[in-house]
Amino acid sequence: MTQRPSRTVHAVLALVVLAAFCAQVVLLLGGGADANSGQADPVPGVTRFVRLLSYFTVQSNLLVLVAAVSLVIDPARDGRFWRVVRLDALLGITVTGLVFGAVLAPYVHPTGVAWWINAGFHYVSPVLAVVSWLLFGPRPRVDGRTFGWAFVWPVGWTVYTLVRGAVADWYPYPFLDVSQLGYAVALRNVGFVVLLSVALLSLFRLLDRRLTPRPRP
């Protein structure tokens, strides 16, 4: 009974993310601002694109896009790998919304098209992704193995960010900028995000068990 509303909501979510991502790519290729930083960096187009894909925000939204499209096709989707992708999408987009709203928003002031892209990535997508999961699931899907494997992507992203930053002297977020903060402060900030991630994953696992199964048998 809930399949049609689920497909509709996830289709809207997928379109929001896809539109924001495509608009951002076009904007960057034209020399425009990156909605994640609010600035237009004078670097080659390939570098701008690599930087775009290096943002936790963008990777989280792309995971949300993959999960949403799969749930449009099958609202009861399941599978070992899919469970991890779905949980990482939920974790990543929740962290994106919370960290941007609490830490980064005062420093990012996009205008024009970049404002809409920023709204899609940092506000609409996080809210719609979490609400759609609460309403439609699918659940239960978060077992112990899924919980453990869900840490692989965020840990991998953190290692990649610090290594690439040391090589290219570019960090996607100011609270990770080792060249400005030093490793002690940057790693402390990473620790805060790790604790937030553990808390969120634990909360999602608890809700996955306690909330009504979706779709209903």
UniProtKB/TrEMBL annotation:
Domain of life, source organism: Bacteria
Keywords, ordered alphabetically: Membrane, Transmembrane, Transmembrane helix
Transmembrane region(s): 50-73, 85-107, 113-135, 147-167, 187-207
The UniProt record lists the keyword Transmembrane helix: yes
InterPro entries: Pr6Pr-like
Protein name: Pr6Pr family membrane protein
Organism: Kineococcus endophyticus
